[in-house]
From TrEMBL:
Protein name (record): Cation diffusion facilitator family transporter
Taxonomy of the source species: Bacteria, Bacillati, Bacillota, Bacilli, Bacillales
Transmembrane segments: 12-33, 81-102, 114-136, 183-202
Presence of the UniProt keyword Transmembrane helix in the record: yes
Membrane topology annotation: Multi-pass membrane protein
Subcellular localization, as worded in the UniProt entry: Membrane
Annotated InterPro entries: Cation_efflux, Cation_efflux_CTD, Cation_efflux_CTD_sf, Cation_efflux_TM, Cation_efflux_TMD_sf, CDF_Transporter
Keywords from the named record: Membrane, Transmembrane, Transmembrane helix, Transport
UniProt xrefs under Pfam families: Cation_efflux (PF01545), ZT_dimer (PF16916)
Homology family: Belongs to the cation diffusion facilitator (CDF) transporter (TC 2.A.4) family.
Residues of the Cation efflux protein transmembrane domain: 14-209
Length: 317
């Protein structure tokens, strides 16, 4: 992870920490004062996001460390590990919210929450959606799985806030219309929030585990890499290209064919150009291993009398 990329990702993580902390306190205090189970559940969700953003920050800092003897390919997997931590936190919070909501429904609900609880939910919706859009787009641009995971956490909080809004509004409406049965909409919304959190947590932990394991990019994802190499001076053809994801970045293994008559030095220069161009053009490519093959077009170069040999492209074409 280059310095500029790390600074942007770290800033996004701090935005998540400060924003979630403020929302958790706001919804927690108002939820307690307004006696809203749904808002308290939503507050707990935001509190888990604080821990999640801290985990992302730790992962980003670890990933920014340069390669060493024990980690020759860098520390990129730290971001994926941070994503797993975030996902597990979501699952734990989802279970706790669900248990609390079931207990409230079982014991009975005698009053509706105060009307000002709606204000906190609306504020949460606006802030959370803004944070999701910011982090998701930045995560896509920086190719950071941890940031993308954290962004989806914000989106799950948007859904939970919508559920909380419906539950609180329904309970308040029940109080206004004199229908005590509608009071139960508040804890039912809390239970619904727990289901959303659990669903999102399962999805994210599944994706994070998949990312933690090295896997080769699909052909359509590697097509741009092949096209870029094919246009580099001195490369006749790309024999094979394997791009494997290593955490938030990609390591490329590539085999190219060059003019069989050029010198070892020229072949080395072409290989060096391939590596430099790929790492410069594609920010998520952290390293490139190039194997140089002599171009085999039916072995025309084996015959010294074959005049077509001179037409084979080289570093000088």
């Amino acid at each position: 992870m280059n310095e500029e990329r790390f600074e942007k990702a770290e800033f996004a993580a701090w935005v998540g920490i400060i924003g979630n902390l403020a929302l958790a306190l706001l919804k927690g205090v108002i939820g307690f004062m307004a006696q809203s189970k749904a808002l308290l559940a939503d507050s707990a969700h935001s509190a888990s996001d604080v821990a999640g953003s801290i985990a992302v920050l730790i992962g980003l800092r670890a990933a920014a460390k340069p390669p060493d003897a024990d980690h020759p390919y860098g520390h990129g997997k730290a971001e994926s590990i941070a994503s797993i931590v975030v996902s597990v936190l979501l699952l734990v919070v989802g279970v706790e919210i669900g248990i609390s909501a079931v207990k409230s429904i079982w014991r009975g609900v005698e009053t509706a929450p105060r009307a000002y609880a709606l204000i906190a939910v609306v504020i949460s919706l606006i802030v959370k959606e803004a944070m999701f859009q910011y982090k998701y787009r930045l995560g896509k641009r920086l190719k950071s799985q941890a940031l993308i995971t954290n962004a989806w956490e914000h989106r799950s909080d948007v859904y939970s806030s919508i559920a909380a809004l419906a539950g609180i509004f329904g309970a308040i409406l029940g109080d206004y219309l004199g229908i005590p049965l509608l009071y139960y909409m508040d804890p039912i919304a809390g239970l619904f929030v727990s289901v959303l959190v659990l669903k999102m947590g399962y999805k994210l932990v599944k994706e994070a585990i998949h990312t933690t394991m090295d896997h080769v990019l699909h052909k359509e994802d590697a097509a741009d890499l092949i096209a870029a190499v094919q246009n580099i001076k001195g490369v006749i053809t790309v024999d094979d290209l394997r791009a494997r994801e290593h955490g938030h970045y990609v390591i490329v293994d590539i085999k190219i064919s060059v003019n069989p008559r050029i010198s070892v030095y020229e072949g080395h220069e072409i290989a060096k150009s391939v590596k430099q161009q790929l790492m410069k053009r594609f920010q998520h490519v952290s390293d490139v291993f190039v194997h140089v093959n002599p171009y085999d077009g039916g072995y025309p170069y084996k015959s010294n009398a074959d005049s077509e040999l001179l037409d084979v492209p080289s570093i000088f074409h």
